Amino acid sequence: MLKFPASTIVDKIIPKNSFEEFASSKQKKMLSSLVARIKWLNKISTQTVNLQGKDVVEIQVFELELKEKSNINELLLLISKIIPYQIIFVLRFNEEVMYSISKKHTHPTNENQAVVDWTFSTTWMSVQEDQLEIALSNSLDYVFYDMCFKISGKNNGNENNIDILIQNEQKLKQLNFSIDKIATTMNKCKQFNKKVELNKNLLELKEEKLKIEDDFRE
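Structure (tokenized):
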């Protein structure tokens, strides 16, 4: 698990019904059936770690203990939108853990709501395998963006190229969609010439994907 200075410790339970007024019926059901407990673990700010920030003024660490290992991205998005500070989510199920973090900015017409630019997540791992570390140095901006890169599994973590990373992640998402679509079409195609053309397109997309992945490979 991530280790933080004692000065950052909050260790308070957040009632699940704190989010209900913002949640849809589906999200309320997810909160009730999938989440056992939400705990506010840490607060990383100038007051707690003596680091300044330009774009990032606070980073919260929330732990969600789950009743089952399930996809709760919709709930994380909800919480990210209604809390103005950046959040590192720690999801726990038995002896497994995963992390999620979102880069976001204030809504242009509603300062009480955030717009999520992109979400980075790890896969599930055993607590023993968890080697994620937080670098409390330079600035709060650096701390946050470094965590974005680490949770994404990419290197080059600094505030100057986080937007490039997000652009690449968006491009990879689109490429994966296109690759899957062409692969499905190829499997159904019975015309040899058409299949050759599709395969050529598929190889080009895979090459483009590999190039983007190499740019931020660890």
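The chain has a mean pLDDT of 89. The first helix runs from residue 25 to 34.
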